């Protein structure tokens, strides 16, 4: 989404008598879906903003626009109420901004759904001695339990799953590894508020072997015989963990997962497709 | 997240001289992570709200609380500015509410990440005649192109991937089907604003065969020979679609995907793990 001009846009409107009126509008950028995106940057008096917004909405409706998006940075939180009064609803928020939207067309509302899932990875890194890379965390739900777990983490914004797995292993243990495949994934709901989680168990091939734990989150990191990992009471008692451990163990029996294959979307964007290779 | 009481909470605070002061606080519910969640329901004067918020923050800090969450319904948008002035940032928003958060502890900030991905499914339903269920949509990017596509859709909040696939097939074509497995999935970034998409290609087994298109979104629906589907110029020209078609074709050559296996998380919650069965 490109940023809009900071100056007000001036629109020309023809009246039936061909008189040209100059209208001040909010600085909106048109997208490819008959939508308008307004990214506010500078403070403005709420009443003046309200007037501009109403005039702009009227013009955009006449132009056949459909979805009107207003992005307000957190420093302009005093303008939110004005936008809501004009019939906008919240669409999504990040720490530093709120996106509001209003559908102004008579056509079917096709506002895209908000993000619903968080995505995390667990990295299964096994060396040629059938040892798996495990960690103990300083904080979190396994703190003080003595449980050794796979390196895990949440993907960063815009980061591919395969890249996130490599990054987390490097950050938590110092080990360089290559992504091989996705072995399995798990979905859970209402993990935090109404959102869901997807957790991908990824297999990686180590390219270095010295373990150096990261200090801020990791208590300890080491290579552990895979049978010892799978035999931990916690793992055996929890069917989710137990199943994942079995999946990892199965790697020695020709279990093949989904590999990351770069492809291109219809709009030309590079996307990874995770699939079996032998098709 | 349980809803908080609508009445103000009264906290008792002991001073060094053992005098008990009565403080009015916002109605916060404590969670299991030393967090406090305040769900505002009724209008309140912003100045009064600000005073209560400051007093509450002071008290919660003394109690060793860490993350303070304020949920504001859209009708109380006039209170957002007050919360922001007390150092809160946005966490997430849905059409009818905004969640703000502030970390008040000296310990490492462990506020959970916001949802980053939307999740969609594509349903590959093949009958015993090697025909695949395809649709043409009334609107959207394939409108008017003549392209026949697999039934697709976005999962609903809290809905499992396997259930979403069954639902979309039923809604778009009237066909009853059983979920068999995930054949592949694709990830793409910056699909809408800064968010990402995960798209799961799911294989389903039909249990009925009469096709009845849904009227509001679907132009037409039918069974089509799978080779004809894969030979469509659009499919062949777009590597992502082409690869998915090859994956579907491979089903006749013993390609096995990831099955949905119900397991339980460590907190006892049922979660689906998608994995190969033969481990």
UniProtKB/TrEMBL annotation, chains A, B:
UniProt signal peptide: none
Pfam family, one: Nudix_hydro
Highest taxon, organism lineage: Eukaryota
SUPFAM superfamilies: Nudix (SSF55811)
InterPro entries per UniProt: Nudix_hydrolase, NUDIX_hydrolase-like_dom_sf, Nudix_hydrolase6-like, NUDIX_hydrolase_CS, NUDIX_hydrolase_dom, Pre-Nudix
Nudix hydrolase domain location: 116-248
PANTHER family, sorted: NUDIX HYDROLASE 5-RELATED, NUDIX HYDROLASE RELATED
Similarity annotation: Belongs to the Nudix hydrolase family.
Protein's name in the database: Nudix hydrolase 7-like isoform X2
């Amino acid at each position: 989404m490109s940023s809009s001009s900071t100056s007000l846009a001036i629109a020309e409107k023809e009246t039936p008598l061909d008189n040209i009126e100059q209208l001040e509008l909010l600085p909106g950028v048109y997208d490819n879906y008959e939508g308008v995106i307004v990214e506010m940057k500078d403070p403005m008096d709420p009443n003046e903003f309200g007037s501009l917004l109403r005039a702009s909405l009227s013009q955009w409706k006449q132009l056949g626009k459909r979805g009107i998006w207003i992005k307000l940075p957190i420093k302009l939180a005093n303008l939110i109420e004005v936008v809501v009064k004009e019939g906008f609803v919240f669409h999504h928020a990040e720490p530093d901004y709120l996106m509001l939207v209003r559908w102004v067309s008579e056509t079917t509302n096709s506002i895209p759904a908000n993000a619903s899932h968080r995505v995390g990875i667990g990295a299964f890194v096994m060396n040629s001695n059938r040892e798996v890379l495990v960690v103990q965390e300083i904080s979190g739900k396994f703190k003080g339990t003595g449980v050794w777990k796979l390196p895990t983490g949440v993907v960063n914004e815009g980061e591919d799953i395969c890249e996130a797995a490599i990054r987390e292993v490097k950050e938590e243990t110092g080990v360089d590894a290559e992504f091989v495949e996705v072995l399995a994934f798990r979905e859970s709901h209402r993990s935090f508020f109404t959102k869901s989680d997807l957790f991908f168990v990824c297999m990686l091939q180590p390219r270095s072997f010295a373990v150096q734990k990261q200090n801020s989150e990791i208590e300890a990191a080491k290579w552990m015989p895979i049978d010892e990992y799978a035999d931990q009471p916690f793992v055996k008692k929890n069917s989710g963990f137990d199943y994942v451990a079995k999946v990892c163990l199965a790697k020695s029996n020709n279990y093949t997962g989904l590999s990351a294959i770069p492809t291109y979307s219809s709009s030309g964007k590079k996307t990874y497709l995770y699939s079996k290779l032998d098709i």
